[in-house]
Fold each of these.
Amino acid sequence: MLSLHKFFELFKAIFALVYIASTMGLLANLLIPYPRLEYADEISSSFLFSWLALYLLTLFFLVLRPGAVLKKWNILFISILALVLLSIVSFLWSSDAVNTLSYAGVLALNFLFCVWLVNEYPISRVVTIIYRAIFIMVACSVVLYIMGYSGVLYYDPHGRETLLGTQPLRGLFNHKITAGLYAVFGFLLCMSLKRRVGRIAGCTMFAIFSILSGSSAAIGLLVIGVVIYSCIKSMLYYRFSLGVFIAIVLLVPLTAVLTFILAGEQLLSLLGRDPTLTGRTLLWGWGIEVALQNVLLGWGYQGYMGTEHAADYAQTIPQFVNYNVPHFHNAYIQIFVELGILGLMLYLAVYFVVLARLYILSSKTAFNFNCYAKFDSFLPLLASLTLLLVSSFFINTFFQYNDFSTLLFFVSAVVVTREFVAKCTYCE
């Protein structure tokens, strides 16, 4: 029989799993019909109350551990708080103040969840919980797909099929593209956390899910993710300096961007693909134009899309007539639009500091047998955050409320601010 203490510990672990899974779309999938039906507004109340319950539990657990927030305040932690606070105070100049205040508040609550999670469990346990959440979501999605459950299917507006000629799989996630991205995160975590048969079985399942999602972006990110993981591991093995790592991280995507700008249209035409990337390049041009209208502070967090200005502008682009554009399909441009050049520069500065510290921590633990459990945790976080720098050029994966990619960044940032991790003076 479980003691009260063990039951409470089990409850906290399940809560963490459910919260993480919900940022990947679990609650939305279960409580909001897809494709959304006429009664979606009626069901959405249960969706909102479910999230409210998760937020209240987060605050409750933080009250039980006040030191989780009150200690370890260093310059990096303060910078992350400044980013969150900037998103909140941006309601003062936002085009939609209510929207901004609401979603920025949710972003802050997600940050608090990450603070609690990292201070509640050692880093190895945190990464294991994240891996289990992805694994359970992917495994259940594949099983339901095989059983023929329509709720996990993706209804492509263009009628496109997967490479296998099947209907795309969205799974229990919020979209097939982000589902594929999260499966890649699971793949990278599996590469580090599992051994032998477990690694082969897990990686195979994540790869199959990516293919069944029917997203060419997901399949491409899987290949890129494996390359990134292998390159970082090799760099650590040969003891490349931090400066070389940062230089490569900066040069590779910049080279890819320049190549796309100079020869992207010709390359896509040769591959038989839409030169606009199904309208993405048009969205990027729109986003840059709008961002330059409020270049310093932006339009406010989540304060532009949904406004009359955005709706009217969308109608001037033939591809977006009668289409509710949710975002610009580029995380860099999205932050530029919402928080201006100030928010974008602050976010990127914090992001690269987190990457740099993860690389340092990985290099310190890579050759220390007593610290190998930490190395197995740092490496997939480092590879995943590096992959996000690439995926964010065509997916909106930075600094989003109730978004798993943002949660992964917050977790990584809080991890490297913890004194015992930052100094790496001992290992669990």
Amino acid sequence: MTDSPAADLRERVLHALRTARVPHTPRSLPFPAHHQPGGDTGGFGWCALCARDADALADAVLAVLPAPADRTAEVEELRTELERRTLMLQASRDQVTRLTADRAAVLTDDERAMLTYALDQAQEHRSREGFTDEDQAAVDSLRRLTTEAPGGDR
């Protein structure tokens, strides 16, 4: 065994490739240096690596690979957590939007009086020099703030 799972798997695959025998290798072929007649299996044959037998190589590798993990439960758990966090984020965003709107809508009596005065001055200015449609829309929007009940009730 080695220190890392990847290195351990590499060693197991290499060992499997060197020790998986390919039966029916012709006896007339000379053995590579790392082979012994009979080897670990008691039969005569080259290893899958030296025999270049693709099927034997694939079988040897598959024999040492870990079984595929069923990750359905893990994926479902992550999906559920993502949905939960998405809902929390949406709720937080909605709360910030409400607080921002409420804060903008809540005026003290003094602020309301000052805004009313400023808007009245703006209307007088408009009557002398004219407003664009955008200017009038801004004044109308601000005027609504002065008529709303304290606390943002609409």
Amino acid sequence: MYMEHKPIELSPYDDPDIYPGPRPSSSFIYFKGRAHKIIEEKGVPVEDLVIQYSESQLLEGSFAGGSITEKTVRSLLNEHNFLPISKRVPLVAYGSNVCLAQLKYKFSLNKEISDFVICLRGSIQDTDIVYGSFLAPYGSLPAIIAPVEGTQTEIWLTFVDPEQLEHMNSTEGRYELRVHDGQKLSLKTEERFEKVYAYYFPHALSIDHKWFRFKDISGISPIQSIWQAEMLNKLIELVGFKGTREKFIHQLRWDQSFLIEIENLLLSFDDAFVHPDWLVPQKLQTVDNLRKLF
């Protein structure tokens, strides 16, 4: 079982205990299969933030040390003829979409699109990241955003181009995009955007009338935090599975009828909710159509 010190090279597709997956210790860009640290300077717009760019072939890129070159986000976008920040959609990531190995896997599914993703660390108020009442095809209980008044939890704001957004949508299954007015979201750089978007599925896993949040995701919350591995153990108890933990996970991943059976049992622990901060968008807007504030 994986809990603390999850290997950075593993994704939830390698082992469901990995979910939501290890993420870098700072804002970063993901590009060509590697992470490059962004210096989180307060008062600096995302376009002008400095990237510590590395030619290292390691997944953790410049986070692993070694020789680096400093470039701004703007200059790197221009260098590769990528769409500027103004033509990108501000999309909140909170589950596995900031796990480097998961990003590597998702972009390996369509090599025709750019894997250049900007990920800025931040936090959000009155929204927590809790376990959903369903299973991913790789056997993990995925993350959802849920209303928890008074909480403050870590999120990441990514900036994706239209092709990347379409690709991400195709990997997010039952989720739908919702919009937030951005007033409760704060980046480490202190930049704010009039609107941000996120994947939304309003069904939390509730055991004894309690939700659970992810121990991997930092935050201030009244909700109990537990590891994915611990939650899968709870699930095995809830459904009364008699075999080994390893066999349970194997059947979830390789036996579609068993996965459906367990998901049907999870309906008894489903807690549907409405999050008043996350609304149905009339249309998706790129950064150039949004007010930016500090």
